[in-house]
Specification:
Layout lengths: L6 H9 L10 H13 L3 H15 L11 H13 L6 H20 L5 H4 L8 H8 L2 H5 L3 E11 L1 H22 L8 E5 L4 E7 L4 E5 L7 E4 H11 L6 E10 L5 H12 L6 H8 L11 H7 L3 H10 L14 H8 L2 H10 L14 H7 L14 H4 L7 H7 L3 H10 L14 H6 L5 H9 L14 H7 L3 H10 L12 H14 L2 H12 L4 H12 L14 H12 L9
Antiparallel strand pairs: 1-6, 2-3, 2-6, 3-4, 4-5
Helix pairs in contact: 1-3, 2-5, 9-10, 9-11, 13-14, 13-15, 14-16, 15-16, 15-17, 19-20, 22-24, 24-25, 24-27, 27-28
Length: 567
Protein backbone atom coordinates (compact mmCIF):
# COMPACT_ATOMS: atom_id res chain seq x y z
CA UNK A 1 0.00 0.00 0.00
CA UNK A 2 1.38 3.41 -0.96
CA UNK A 3 2.02 6.01 1.73
CA UNK A 4 -0.80 8.51 2.12
CA UNK A 5 1.22 11.74 2.04
CA UNK A 6 3.51 13.68 -0.26
CA UNK A 7 6.54 12.90 1.92
CA UNK A 8 8.07 10.27 -0.41
CA UNK A 9 7.74 12.59 -3.41
CA UNK A 10 9.25 15.56 -1.62
CA UNK A 11 12.06 13.50 -0.09
CA UNK A 12 13.00 11.94 -3.41
CA UNK A 13 12.77 15.25 -5.27
CA UNK A 14 15.38 16.66 -2.91
CA UNK A 15 17.64 13.69 -3.51
CA UNK A 16 17.30 14.40 -7.22
CA UNK A 17 18.48 17.94 -6.53
CA UNK A 18 15.16 19.81 -6.59
CA UNK A 19 14.07 22.32 -3.94
CA UNK A 20 10.69 20.79 -3.22
CA UNK A 21 8.60 22.80 -0.76
CA UNK A 22 8.21 20.91 2.52
CA UNK A 23 4.65 22.29 2.74
CA UNK A 24 3.66 20.41 -0.39
CA UNK A 25 3.86 20.20 -4.16
CA UNK A 26 0.19 19.55 -4.84
CA UNK A 27 -0.24 22.14 -7.60
CA UNK A 28 2.77 20.87 -9.55
CA UNK A 29 1.77 17.24 -9.08
CA UNK A 30 -1.82 17.74 -10.26
CA UNK A 31 -0.53 19.75 -13.24
CA UNK A 32 1.62 16.79 -14.29
CA UNK A 33 -1.33 14.46 -13.64
CA UNK A 34 -3.44 16.54 -16.04
CA UNK A 35 -0.80 16.30 -18.76
CA UNK A 36 -0.73 12.51 -18.35
CA UNK A 37 -4.51 12.23 -18.36
CA UNK A 38 -4.95 14.26 -21.54
CA UNK A 39 -2.72 11.88 -23.52
CA UNK A 40 -3.98 8.61 -21.99
CA UNK A 41 -0.93 8.04 -19.81
CA UNK A 42 -2.59 7.72 -16.41
CA UNK A 43 -1.32 4.17 -15.97
CA UNK A 44 2.22 5.33 -16.66
CA UNK A 45 1.74 8.15 -14.14
CA UNK A 46 0.61 5.67 -11.46
CA UNK A 47 3.56 3.38 -12.23
CA UNK A 48 5.91 6.34 -11.82
CA UNK A 49 4.41 7.16 -8.42
CA UNK A 50 4.80 3.50 -7.39
CA UNK A 51 8.47 3.50 -8.44
CA UNK A 52 9.04 6.73 -6.49
CA UNK A 53 7.66 5.12 -3.35
CA UNK A 54 9.80 2.01 -3.84
CA UNK A 55 12.92 4.14 -4.26
CA UNK A 56 12.01 6.17 -1.18
CA UNK A 57 11.62 2.96 0.83
CA UNK A 58 15.00 1.66 -0.43
CA UNK A 59 13.33 -1.41 -1.95
CA UNK A 60 15.29 -1.21 -5.21
CA UNK A 61 18.95 -2.11 -5.63
CA UNK A 62 20.95 -0.81 -8.59
CA UNK A 63 24.63 -1.60 -9.11
CA UNK A 64 24.84 -2.78 -5.52
CA UNK A 65 23.31 0.34 -3.95
CA UNK A 66 19.91 1.46 -2.68
CA UNK A 67 21.15 5.06 -2.36
CA UNK A 68 19.20 7.12 -4.89
CA UNK A 69 21.89 9.80 -5.12
CA UNK A 70 24.49 7.19 -6.03
CA UNK A 71 22.12 5.62 -8.57
CA UNK A 72 21.64 9.01 -10.20
CA UNK A 73 25.37 9.67 -10.32
CA UNK A 74 26.00 6.37 -12.10
CA UNK A 75 23.10 6.77 -14.54
CA UNK A 76 23.89 10.39 -15.38
CA UNK A 77 27.47 9.35 -16.03
CA UNK A 78 26.19 6.81 -18.57
CA UNK A 79 24.07 9.52 -20.19
CA UNK A 80 27.10 11.82 -20.50
CA UNK A 81 29.02 9.02 -22.20
CA UNK A 82 26.06 8.34 -24.54
CA UNK A 83 25.92 4.73 -23.37
CA UNK A 84 22.77 2.73 -24.00
CA UNK A 85 20.39 2.83 -21.03
CA UNK A 86 18.46 -0.08 -19.56
CA UNK A 87 14.70 0.07 -19.00
CA UNK A 88 15.20 0.94 -15.32
CA UNK A 89 17.72 3.66 -16.16
CA UNK A 90 15.28 5.21 -18.62
CA UNK A 91 12.58 5.17 -15.95
CA UNK A 92 14.94 6.95 -13.57
CA UNK A 93 15.59 9.64 -16.16
CA UNK A 94 11.84 9.85 -16.65
CA UNK A 95 11.41 10.52 -12.94
CA UNK A 96 14.07 13.24 -13.20
CA UNK A 97 12.07 14.96 -15.95
CA UNK A 98 8.85 14.39 -13.98
CA UNK A 99 10.33 16.12 -10.93
CA UNK A 100 11.60 18.98 -13.08
CA UNK A 101 8.05 19.48 -14.34
CA UNK A 102 6.61 19.47 -10.81
CA UNK A 103 9.27 21.92 -9.62
CA UNK A 104 8.60 24.32 -12.49
CA UNK A 105 4.81 24.08 -12.30
CA UNK A 106 4.64 24.51 -8.53
CA UNK A 107 7.26 27.28 -8.23
CA UNK A 108 6.73 29.37 -11.36
CA UNK A 109 7.73 32.51 -9.46
CA UNK A 110 11.28 31.14 -9.11
CA UNK A 111 11.66 30.53 -12.82
CA UNK A 112 10.36 33.72 -14.39
CA UNK A 113 13.58 34.28 -16.33
CA UNK A 114 13.38 30.78 -17.77
CA UNK A 115 9.68 31.09 -18.59
CA UNK A 116 10.16 34.55 -20.09
CA UNK A 117 7.08 35.91 -18.30
CA UNK A 118 5.07 35.48 -15.14
CA UNK A 119 2.95 32.33 -15.24
CA UNK A 120 0.65 31.56 -12.34
CA UNK A 121 1.36 28.47 -10.28
CA UNK A 122 0.22 25.33 -12.13
CA UNK A 123 -1.34 27.29 -15.00
CA UNK A 124 -1.93 24.14 -17.01
CA UNK A 125 -2.67 25.98 -20.26
CA UNK A 126 0.46 28.12 -20.38
CA UNK A 127 2.77 25.55 -18.85
CA UNK A 128 1.81 22.96 -21.45
CA UNK A 129 3.93 24.92 -23.93
CA UNK A 130 6.95 24.64 -21.60
CA UNK A 131 6.77 21.32 -19.77
CA UNK A 132 4.09 19.47 -21.69
CA UNK A 133 5.23 16.29 -23.41
CA UNK A 134 5.72 15.88 -27.14
CA UNK A 135 2.34 14.16 -27.19
CA UNK A 136 0.74 17.26 -25.65
CA UNK A 137 2.45 19.44 -28.26
CA UNK A 138 1.28 17.15 -31.07
CA UNK A 139 -2.27 17.71 -29.87
CA UNK A 140 -1.89 21.49 -30.02
CA UNK A 141 -1.25 22.10 -26.33
CA UNK A 142 -3.85 22.50 -23.59
CA UNK A 143 -7.07 24.52 -23.74
CA UNK A 144 -9.36 25.46 -20.87
CA UNK A 145 -12.92 24.25 -21.39
CA UNK A 146 -14.53 25.61 -18.25
CA UNK A 147 -13.61 27.48 -15.08
CA UNK A 148 -15.97 28.49 -12.29
CA UNK A 149 -15.81 28.97 -8.53
CA UNK A 150 -17.88 26.78 -6.24
CA UNK A 151 -19.01 27.75 -2.77
CA UNK A 152 -21.32 25.80 -0.51
CA UNK A 153 -21.86 22.99 1.94
CA UNK A 154 -21.81 19.25 1.33
CA UNK A 155 -25.43 19.17 0.20
CA UNK A 156 -24.83 21.84 -2.45
CA UNK A 157 -21.61 20.18 -3.52
CA UNK A 158 -23.45 16.89 -4.06
CA UNK A 159 -25.96 18.68 -6.30
CA UNK A 160 -23.15 20.37 -8.18
CA UNK A 161 -21.30 17.10 -8.73
CA UNK A 162 -24.49 15.40 -9.90
CA UNK A 163 -24.98 18.14 -12.48
CA UNK A 164 -21.33 17.88 -13.48
CA UNK A 165 -21.63 14.11 -13.91
CA UNK A 166 -24.61 14.61 -16.23
CA UNK A 167 -22.59 16.97 -18.42
CA UNK A 168 -19.67 14.53 -18.51
CA UNK A 169 -21.93 11.57 -19.33
CA UNK A 170 -23.48 13.46 -22.23
CA UNK A 171 -20.04 14.52 -23.40
CA UNK A 172 -18.76 10.93 -23.48
CA UNK A 173 -21.74 9.90 -25.60
CA UNK A 174 -21.05 12.72 -28.06
CA UNK A 175 -17.30 12.05 -28.16
CA UNK A 176 -17.72 8.34 -28.84
CA UNK A 177 -14.57 6.81 -30.27
CA UNK A 178 -13.09 10.10 -31.49
CA UNK A 179 -9.43 10.71 -30.62
CA UNK A 180 -8.04 13.56 -28.50
CA UNK A 181 -11.26 13.91 -26.50
CA UNK A 182 -9.93 13.36 -22.97
CA UNK A 183 -10.84 15.90 -20.30
CA UNK A 184 -8.98 16.67 -17.08
CA UNK A 185 -10.73 18.23 -14.07
CA UNK A 186 -8.89 20.10 -11.32
CA UNK A 187 -10.29 21.54 -8.11
CA UNK A 188 -8.09 24.44 -7.04
CA UNK A 189 -7.99 26.61 -3.95
CA UNK A 190 -5.15 28.92 -2.97
CA UNK A 191 -3.85 26.25 -0.59
CA UNK A 192 -4.49 22.90 -2.25
CA UNK A 193 -5.29 21.22 -5.55
CA UNK A 194 -7.19 18.00 -6.32
CA UNK A 195 -8.14 16.04 -9.42
CA UNK A 196 -11.38 14.19 -10.13
CA UNK A 197 -12.53 12.03 -13.04
CA UNK A 198 -16.03 10.68 -13.63
CA UNK A 199 -16.67 7.05 -14.63
CA UNK A 200 -20.22 7.04 -16.12
CA UNK A 201 -20.48 3.26 -16.45
CA UNK A 202 -19.78 2.81 -12.73
CA UNK A 203 -21.41 5.98 -11.37
CA UNK A 204 -18.20 6.58 -9.49
CA UNK A 205 -15.30 9.03 -9.50
CA UNK A 206 -11.55 8.72 -9.50
CA UNK A 207 -10.17 11.04 -6.83
CA UNK A 208 -6.53 12.16 -6.71
CA UNK A 209 -5.42 14.00 -3.59
CA UNK A 210 -1.63 14.50 -3.33
CA UNK A 211 -2.03 14.02 0.43
CA UNK A 212 -3.78 10.67 -0.03
CA UNK A 213 -2.00 8.88 -2.84
CA UNK A 214 -2.68 6.69 -4.73
CA UNK A 215 -5.72 7.71 -6.78
CA UNK A 216 -8.80 5.98 -5.43
CA UNK A 217 -12.25 5.16 -6.76
CA UNK A 218 -15.10 6.71 -4.79
CA UNK A 219 -18.88 6.21 -5.13
CA UNK A 220 -20.63 9.36 -6.30
CA UNK A 221 -22.48 9.74 -3.00
CA UNK A 222 -19.20 10.00 -1.05
CA UNK A 223 -17.19 12.37 -3.23
CA UNK A 224 -18.53 15.64 -1.77
CA UNK A 225 -17.44 14.77 1.77
CA UNK A 226 -14.03 13.60 0.49
CA UNK A 227 -13.48 16.93 -1.28
CA UNK A 228 -14.47 19.03 1.74
CA UNK A 229 -12.21 16.94 3.95
CA UNK A 230 -9.29 17.18 1.49
CA UNK A 231 -9.55 20.99 1.50
CA UNK A 232 -9.53 20.90 5.34
CA UNK A 233 -12.88 22.66 5.47
CA UNK A 234 -15.56 21.86 8.04
CA UNK A 235 -18.95 22.37 6.44
CA UNK A 236 -18.65 24.93 3.66
CA UNK A 237 -15.94 24.82 1.03
CA UNK A 238 -14.77 27.20 -1.68
CA UNK A 239 -12.63 26.32 -4.68
CA UNK A 240 -12.27 26.78 -8.43
CA UNK A 241 -13.38 24.00 -10.78
CA UNK A 242 -11.26 23.86 -13.94
CA UNK A 243 -11.77 21.57 -16.93
CA UNK A 244 -9.07 21.16 -19.59
CA UNK A 245 -8.63 19.33 -22.86
CA UNK A 246 -6.23 19.44 -25.81
CA UNK A 247 -6.54 22.04 -28.56
CA UNK A 248 -7.13 19.39 -31.23
CA UNK A 249 -10.15 17.94 -29.45
CA UNK A 250 -12.78 17.69 -32.25
CA UNK A 251 -15.50 18.24 -29.64
CA UNK A 252 -13.95 21.36 -28.09
CA UNK A 253 -16.57 23.83 -29.29
CA UNK A 254 -19.64 21.76 -28.34
CA UNK A 255 -18.26 20.78 -24.93
CA UNK A 256 -17.59 24.44 -24.14
CA UNK A 257 -21.19 25.16 -25.07
CA UNK A 258 -22.33 22.37 -22.72
CA UNK A 259 -20.37 23.83 -19.83
CA UNK A 260 -21.53 27.37 -20.60
CA UNK A 261 -25.09 26.15 -20.20
CA UNK A 262 -24.17 24.27 -17.03
CA UNK A 263 -22.64 27.47 -15.62
CA UNK A 264 -25.88 29.48 -15.68
CA UNK A 265 -27.79 27.95 -12.80
CA UNK A 266 -25.82 28.75 -9.62
CA UNK A 267 -25.68 31.84 -7.40
CA UNK A 268 -23.78 32.63 -4.23
CA UNK A 269 -25.91 33.55 -1.22
CA UNK A 270 -24.91 35.85 1.61
CA UNK A 271 -25.23 32.97 4.07
CA UNK A 272 -22.88 30.77 2.01
CA UNK A 273 -20.35 33.54 1.63
CA UNK A 274 -20.46 34.30 5.35
CA UNK A 275 -19.84 30.68 6.32
CA UNK A 276 -17.00 30.29 3.83
CA UNK A 277 -15.33 33.46 5.08
CA UNK A 278 -14.87 32.28 8.64
CA UNK A 279 -11.40 31.04 9.47
CA UNK A 280 -10.87 27.42 10.33
CA UNK A 281 -8.47 26.14 12.93
CA UNK A 282 -6.53 24.18 10.34
CA UNK A 283 -3.47 26.08 9.10
CA UNK A 284 -3.55 24.39 5.70
CA UNK A 285 -7.24 25.00 5.10
CA UNK A 286 -9.80 27.75 5.39
CA UNK A 287 -10.32 28.57 1.73
CA UNK A 288 -12.56 31.52 0.86
CA UNK A 289 -14.50 32.26 -2.27
CA UNK A 290 -13.12 35.82 -2.51
CA UNK A 291 -9.57 34.48 -2.51
CA UNK A 292 -10.40 31.81 -5.08
CA UNK A 293 -12.08 34.40 -7.31
CA UNK A 294 -9.19 36.86 -6.99
CA UNK A 295 -6.61 34.18 -7.74
CA UNK A 296 -8.41 33.33 -10.96
CA UNK A 297 -9.39 36.87 -11.96
CA UNK A 298 -13.10 36.12 -11.56
CA UNK A 299 -14.41 39.68 -11.35
CA UNK A 300 -18.05 38.63 -11.69
CA UNK A 301 -17.84 36.73 -8.42
CA UNK A 302 -15.90 39.55 -6.74
CA UNK A 303 -18.60 42.06 -7.73
CA UNK A 304 -21.28 39.75 -6.38
CA UNK A 305 -19.45 39.36 -3.07
CA UNK A 306 -19.00 43.13 -2.83
CA UNK A 307 -22.74 43.56 -3.21
CA UNK A 308 -23.35 41.01 -0.45
CA UNK A 309 -20.81 42.45 1.98
CA UNK A 310 -17.71 44.49 1.18
CA UNK A 311 -15.75 42.98 4.08
CA UNK A 312 -15.39 39.72 2.12
CA UNK A 313 -12.92 41.54 -0.13
CA UNK A 314 -10.58 42.39 2.75
CA UNK A 315 -10.51 39.24 4.86
CA UNK A 316 -7.22 37.36 5.23
CA UNK A 317 -7.01 33.61 4.69
CA UNK A 318 -5.04 31.28 6.94
CA UNK A 319 -1.84 32.18 5.09
CA UNK A 320 -2.43 35.90 5.65
CA UNK A 321 -3.38 36.65 2.03
CA UNK A 322 -6.19 39.05 1.14
CA UNK A 323 -8.05 38.81 -2.18
CA UNK A 324 -6.15 41.88 -3.37
CA UNK A 325 -2.84 40.16 -2.62
CA UNK A 326 -3.87 37.19 -4.74
CA UNK A 327 -5.00 39.42 -7.62
CA UNK A 328 -1.68 41.28 -7.41
CA UNK A 329 0.41 38.12 -7.27
CA UNK A 330 -1.26 36.57 -10.29
CA UNK A 331 -1.44 39.80 -12.27
CA UNK A 332 -5.18 39.97 -12.94
CA UNK A 333 -5.73 43.50 -14.20
CA UNK A 334 -9.52 43.69 -14.05
CA UNK A 335 -9.61 42.05 -10.63
CA UNK A 336 -6.98 44.31 -9.04
CA UNK A 337 -8.52 47.48 -10.45
CA UNK A 338 -11.95 46.47 -9.18
CA UNK A 339 -10.61 45.61 -5.73
CA UNK A 340 -8.67 48.89 -5.65
CA UNK A 341 -11.86 50.77 -6.49
CA UNK A 342 -13.47 49.20 -3.42
CA UNK A 343 -10.61 49.63 -0.94
CA UNK A 344 -7.98 51.90 -2.50
CA UNK A 345 -5.74 52.26 0.56
CA UNK A 346 -5.23 48.48 0.66
CA UNK A 347 -2.97 48.78 -2.39
CA UNK A 348 -0.04 49.95 -0.27
CA UNK A 349 -1.11 48.56 3.10
CA UNK A 350 1.21 45.81 4.30
CA UNK A 351 -0.62 42.80 5.68
CA UNK A 352 0.56 40.65 8.56
CA UNK A 353 2.84 38.99 6.01
CA UNK A 354 4.84 42.20 5.75
CA UNK A 355 4.09 43.21 2.17
CA UNK A 356 1.39 45.03 0.23
CA UNK A 357 -0.30 44.29 -3.12
CA UNK A 358 1.97 46.86 -4.79
CA UNK A 359 4.97 45.02 -3.34
CA UNK A 360 3.76 41.82 -5.02
CA UNK A 361 3.15 43.63 -8.30
CA UNK A 362 6.77 44.79 -8.24
CA UNK A 363 8.11 41.43 -7.07
CA UNK A 364 6.40 39.64 -9.97
CA UNK A 365 7.23 42.46 -12.42
CA UNK A 366 3.62 42.89 -13.50
CA UNK A 367 4.33 45.94 -15.64
CA UNK A 368 0.89 45.73 -17.26
CA UNK A 369 -0.74 46.68 -13.93
CA UNK A 370 1.10 49.98 -13.44
CA UNK A 371 -0.85 52.13 -15.90
CA UNK A 372 -4.32 50.86 -14.84
CA UNK A 373 -3.42 51.68 -11.23
CA UNK A 374 -2.05 55.14 -12.08
CA UNK A 375 -5.24 56.86 -10.77
CA UNK A 376 -4.22 55.70 -7.30
CA UNK A 377 -0.75 57.26 -7.55
CA UNK A 378 -1.50 59.75 -4.79
CA UNK A 379 -1.36 56.82 -2.36
CA UNK A 380 2.37 56.38 -2.82
CA UNK A 381 3.28 59.92 -3.88
CA UNK A 382 4.04 60.88 -0.27
CA UNK A 383 6.22 57.90 0.55
CA UNK A 384 9.93 58.49 1.30
CA UNK A 385 11.93 58.10 -1.90
CA UNK A 386 13.64 54.95 -0.64
CA UNK A 387 10.20 53.36 -0.19
CA UNK A 388 8.73 54.66 -3.43
CA UNK A 389 7.67 52.21 -6.11
CA UNK A 390 10.45 53.13 -8.50
CA UNK A 391 13.14 52.65 -5.83
CA UNK A 392 11.68 49.27 -4.90
CA UNK A 393 11.60 48.26 -8.57
CA UNK A 394 15.21 49.40 -9.06
CA UNK A 395 16.41 47.69 -5.87
CA UNK A 396 14.86 44.40 -7.01
CA UNK A 397 15.83 44.98 -10.67
CA UNK A 398 12.23 44.60 -11.84
CA UNK A 399 12.72 46.34 -15.14
CA UNK A 400 9.24 45.96 -16.59
CA UNK A 401 7.62 47.75 -13.67
CA UNK A 402 10.43 50.31 -13.54
CA UNK A 403 10.01 51.30 -17.18
CA UNK A 404 6.22 51.45 -16.77
CA UNK A 405 6.69 53.82 -13.82
CA UNK A 406 9.08 55.98 -15.85
CA UNK A 407 6.52 56.24 -18.63
CA UNK A 408 4.10 57.76 -16.13
CA UNK A 409 6.66 59.94 -14.33
CA UNK A 410 9.94 60.46 -16.28
CA UNK A 411 11.55 62.86 -13.74
CA UNK A 412 11.47 60.12 -11.10
CA UNK A 413 14.51 58.52 -12.74
CA UNK A 414 16.73 61.23 -11.21
CA UNK A 415 15.04 61.69 -7.83
CA UNK A 416 17.41 61.05 -4.97
CA UNK A 417 16.89 59.38 -1.63
CA UNK A 418 18.31 60.61 1.68
CA UNK A 419 21.78 59.37 0.64
CA UNK A 420 21.67 61.22 -2.65
CA UNK A 421 21.28 58.04 -4.70
CA UNK A 422 18.82 57.69 -7.56
CA UNK A 423 17.12 54.56 -8.93
CA UNK A 424 19.89 54.53 -11.55
CA UNK A 425 22.51 54.07 -8.83
CA UNK A 426 20.64 51.01 -7.59
CA UNK A 427 20.36 49.51 -11.06
CA UNK A 428 24.09 49.85 -11.62
CA UNK A 429 24.62 47.37 -8.79
CA UNK A 430 22.26 44.81 -10.33
CA UNK A 431 22.41 42.54 -13.32
CA UNK A 432 20.93 44.30 -16.33
CA UNK A 433 21.46 44.30 -20.07
CA UNK A 434 23.12 47.20 -21.87
CA UNK A 435 19.79 47.88 -23.57
CA UNK A 436 18.47 49.03 -20.18
CA UNK A 437 21.09 51.81 -20.18
CA UNK A 438 19.61 52.96 -23.49
CA UNK A 439 16.13 52.93 -21.96
CA UNK A 440 17.30 54.97 -18.99
CA UNK A 441 19.00 57.44 -21.32
CA UNK A 442 15.79 57.86 -23.32
CA UNK A 443 14.00 58.73 -20.09
CA UNK A 444 16.56 61.39 -19.21
CA UNK A 445 18.72 59.53 -16.71
CA UNK A 446 21.62 61.56 -15.32
CA UNK A 447 24.52 59.12 -15.23
CA UNK A 448 26.76 61.72 -13.56
CA UNK A 449 24.47 62.54 -10.63
CA UNK A 450 26.59 62.26 -7.52
CA UNK A 451 25.46 60.73 -4.24
CA UNK A 452 26.43 62.09 -0.82
CA UNK A 453 29.47 59.82 -1.02
CA UNK A 454 30.50 61.18 -4.42
CA UNK A 455 29.38 58.05 -6.28
CA UNK A 456 27.78 58.34 -9.73
CA UNK A 457 26.08 55.70 -11.87
CA UNK A 458 28.95 56.14 -14.34
CA UNK A 459 31.59 55.49 -11.68
CA UNK A 460 29.70 52.37 -10.54
CA UNK A 461 29.69 51.05 -14.11
CA UNK A 462 33.41 51.82 -14.47
CA UNK A 463 34.22 50.03 -11.21
CA UNK A 464 32.40 46.96 -12.52
CA UNK A 465 34.23 47.25 -15.87
CA UNK A 466 30.93 47.31 -17.73
CA UNK A 467 32.40 49.06 -20.74
CA UNK A 468 29.32 48.57 -22.89
CA UNK A 469 27.30 50.39 -20.22
CA UNK A 470 29.92 53.13 -19.96
CA UNK A 471 30.01 53.66 -23.71
CA UNK A 472 26.23 54.12 -23.91
CA UNK A 473 26.27 56.46 -20.92
CA UNK A 474 28.97 58.69 -22.40
CA UNK A 475 27.31 58.76 -25.81
CA UNK A 476 24.12 59.99 -24.16
CA UNK A 477 25.67 62.48 -21.74
CA UNK A 478 26.40 66.14 -22.56
CA UNK A 479 30.08 67.15 -22.76
CA UNK A 480 30.21 69.45 -19.73
CA UNK A 481 30.96 66.62 -17.32
CA UNK A 482 33.99 65.50 -15.35
CA UNK A 483 34.78 62.03 -16.63
CA UNK A 484 36.73 59.60 -14.42
CA UNK A 485 40.19 58.80 -15.75
CA UNK A 486 40.49 55.19 -14.51
CA UNK A 487 39.08 53.52 -17.59
CA UNK A 488 40.28 50.82 -19.99
CA UNK A 489 40.51 53.00 -23.08
CA UNK A 490 40.85 50.15 -25.57
CA UNK A 491 37.91 48.20 -24.11
CA UNK A 492 35.76 51.33 -24.00
CA UNK A 493 36.50 52.27 -27.62
CA UNK A 494 35.69 48.73 -28.77
CA UNK A 495 32.45 48.73 -26.76
CA UNK A 496 31.43 52.01 -28.39
CA UNK A 497 32.12 50.67 -31.89
CA UNK A 498 30.13 47.51 -31.17
CA UNK A 499 27.21 49.55 -29.89
CA UNK A 500 27.27 51.94 -32.84
CA UNK A 501 27.31 48.97 -35.21
CA UNK A 502 24.06 47.71 -33.65
CA UNK A 503 22.15 50.94 -34.26
CA UNK A 504 19.96 51.98 -37.19
CA UNK A 505 21.81 54.26 -39.60
CA UNK A 506 20.03 57.46 -38.56
CA UNK A 507 20.66 56.92 -34.83
CA UNK A 508 24.26 55.94 -35.45
CA UNK A 509 24.88 59.08 -37.51
CA UNK A 510 23.64 61.31 -34.69
CA UNK A 511 26.02 59.71 -32.21
CA UNK A 512 28.95 59.87 -34.64
CA UNK A 513 28.35 63.56 -35.22
CA UNK A 514 28.19 64.01 -31.44
CA UNK A 515 31.57 62.31 -31.08
CA UNK A 516 33.24 64.30 -33.87
CA UNK A 517 31.87 67.61 -32.65
CA UNK A 518 32.63 66.74 -29.03
CA UNK A 519 28.99 67.41 -28.16
CA UNK A 520 28.56 64.21 -26.16
CA UNK A 521 30.53 62.74 -23.29
CA UNK A 522 32.27 60.12 -25.39
CA UNK A 523 33.64 62.72 -27.83
CA UNK A 524 34.82 64.84 -24.92
CA UNK A 525 36.52 61.83 -23.29
CA UNK A 526 38.42 61.09 -26.53
CA UNK A 527 39.45 64.71 -26.85
CA UNK A 528 40.59 64.83 -23.21
CA UNK A 529 42.68 61.72 -23.83
CA UNK A 530 44.31 63.43 -26.76
CA UNK A 531 45.03 66.58 -24.77
CA UNK A 532 46.63 64.51 -22.03
CA UNK A 533 49.17 63.20 -24.53
CA UNK A 534 50.60 66.68 -25.21
CA UNK A 535 54.25 66.83 -24.28
CA UNK A 536 55.21 69.19 -21.47
CA UNK A 537 57.48 70.98 -23.96
CA UNK A 538 56.24 73.56 -26.42
CA UNK A 539 56.29 71.11 -29.33
CA UNK A 540 53.26 71.29 -31.57
CA UNK A 541 50.60 68.65 -30.89
CA UNK A 542 50.11 66.39 -33.93
CA UNK A 543 46.36 65.93 -34.16
CA UNK A 544 46.51 63.02 -36.59
CA UNK A 545 48.31 60.88 -34.01
CA UNK A 546 45.82 61.42 -31.20
CA UNK A 547 43.23 58.93 -29.88
CA UNK A 548 40.54 61.37 -31.00
CA UNK A 549 41.77 61.44 -34.60
CA UNK A 550 42.41 57.70 -34.67
CA UNK A 551 38.88 56.93 -33.48
CA UNK A 552 37.36 59.41 -35.92
CA UNK A 553 39.29 57.67 -38.69
CA UNK A 554 37.98 54.29 -37.53
CA UNK A 555 34.44 55.67 -37.61
CA UNK A 556 34.92 56.88 -41.20
CA UNK A 557 36.32 53.50 -42.16
CA UNK A 558 33.49 51.46 -40.60
CA UNK A 559 30.66 53.89 -41.25
CA UNK A 560 31.44 55.89 -44.43
CA UNK A 561 28.33 58.03 -44.03
CA UNK A 562 29.87 59.79 -41.01
CA UNK A 563 30.59 63.51 -41.17
CA UNK A 564 33.98 65.19 -41.33
CA UNK A 565 36.27 65.53 -38.32
CA UNK A 566 35.92 68.72 -36.33
CA UNK A 567 38.39 69.69 -33.64
Amino acid sequence: MMPSTQAPLISLMRKFGYTANHQGICAGLICMMAFAELVDEEERFDQRIELINQLHAAKITYEGTTDVREMLRLIRDKVKKHNKLTSFEKRMMGIDAFFAGIELAHHTERYRDFLGEFIAKADIEQLSDVIGSKKIAARGGVEKVYSEPFIGNEKKLKRYLNGLSEVLTEYEKNAGDKTNTRLSISLYSPLHRLRIKYLPAEEAWLFTDPNQLPTKKIPSRQLASEIISAFHDKTNSAFEVQVFTVAKNPCLKPVRAQFDQFRQFRTITKDDAEKATKKTAVQTGGTRIAHVAAMHGDVKTLRHLADLNGKYLQVEDNDGYTPMLYAAQYGHEEAITFLASQHRSDLIKATALGFSPMDLIILNDHAHLIKPLAPYGTLWAGLPESESLIFKAARQVKLGVLVALLELDPPSVNRADSRGETPVHLLMRGEIEASMIETLARHGADFMKSSAQGVTPLSLAINRKKWDWVAIMLLNQPPAIEIPKSMDAAALREAALTYLQSLPDADRELFIQGIKTKSNGFGQWLFNQSAALKAPSLRLFKEEATPFAEFAGELDKRFPAGGGLTL
